[in-house]
Design a protein that fits this description.
This protein is of the alpha+beta class. Among the domains are: about 90 residues, Cytochrome Bc1 Complex, Chain D, domain 2 (Orthogonal Bundle), CATH 1.10.760; about 45 residues, SH3 type barrels (Roll). The protein has 18 helices and seven strands. A hairpin with a 3-residue loop joins strand 4 and strand 5. The protein binds heme C. The site of heme C has 25 residues, from helix 16 and helix 17.
Amino acid sequence: MKLLLPFITLLLFLTPPLRANDAQSQKDNLIVQALLRLEKYNLHAKEKAHVKAAVLRYLKANPATDEFFTLIEKFKITEANLQLIGIALDNPRKTEGVRAAKILLASKNTTHINNILAGKKAPPAISLLTALGNTADPAVVPIALPIVTSKRSLPTRTAAVNALGKSAKGQRALLKLTTTKKLPTDLKFTTANILLASRDKKIATEAAKHLKLPATAGSKPLPPIATLAKLTGNPAKGKAVYTRACAICHLPSVLKIDFGPNLIEIGDKLPKSALYTAILDPNAGINFGFEGFILKTKSGAELAGYIQSKTDTTITLKIAGGIAQKFKRADIAKITPMKQSLMPENLQASMNKQELVDLVQYLTTLKKKK
Ligand code: HEC
């Protein structure tokens, strides 16, 4: 151990700095390997600035490797926080993204996390909440809880609820919001799915007094999605349900109506649980390009649809039934964004539980032909 310190210093002087990047990265690598073997080393001391510089170069060149994470954790390198955020945002459901989120939480300096979460853009906030949630760390609770009752968009608030749902402490916080009637109505579905499926039976029982999952035909409430997703249905029967309830808006369709997103390869895109969410809670995540608008014309017509195209002088609105209508901007009195999805809620009310399970089974068979 004693030999390693002079060894690091020696290395720094031996290798000529003018050699190509290769030589430098080799040198950085050796320094890092030596450091990783040291039990104690004050990397942040002033006189070690050159060693620290080598480490920071190494981190830049070797992101998300095991050494990368170990170095940051061992020497508490906050300079890498921005890099960690990037890794968490890119892989919120993967080992490296979750590890990055965990280190960020432990670093106590939550500035970067707060910046992303306070930012106007929903997608980064959603990814970060997902990564943080997947750590199941109770430190996520004070970060995600205020978002649930904030004025942020529904997908962002839904991600906050899902992040809380990953830890027992978060579930208890959600339960408290529920019992004190502070849970926003548009989050009841997501919350019910988490709390009613809680491994903690006390939480599940208490939640059941306040929250219900959507009912199917015959007003029987559904089990949580986690339970539904484990069931297997009959895809042929599911196809019949689809033709009855979905083909008026989606392809594939004998009616050839193209209004909602094309579902021809939906089985490749969404796992079963996400298919259930799409059907039972269409407002939770609205597909890009399908955001609804209410358009009022000066002559008094009012239509709901999404914007298919626009020019300086016209707006083309696609309305249910797949019909595109072109309006002169001069004829439009008002066009306002809708908060709700153009896909109706409560479609499951026209089917029983088995029919819903069959329908989802059918959707999983819609895959790219190989
Ligand atoms: C009145 C039209 C309408 C009906 C009926 C309808 N949908 Fe939709 N659906 C939409 C629209 C519009 C969107 C896109 C907006 C959104 O994401 O909420 C959508 C989105 C979806 C998505 C998400 C697609 C993706 O790529 O993420 C799925 C899955 C879906 N619908 C399945 C169904 C199923 C299954 C049924 C039948 C039970 C159905 N829809 C009935 C209009 C409809």
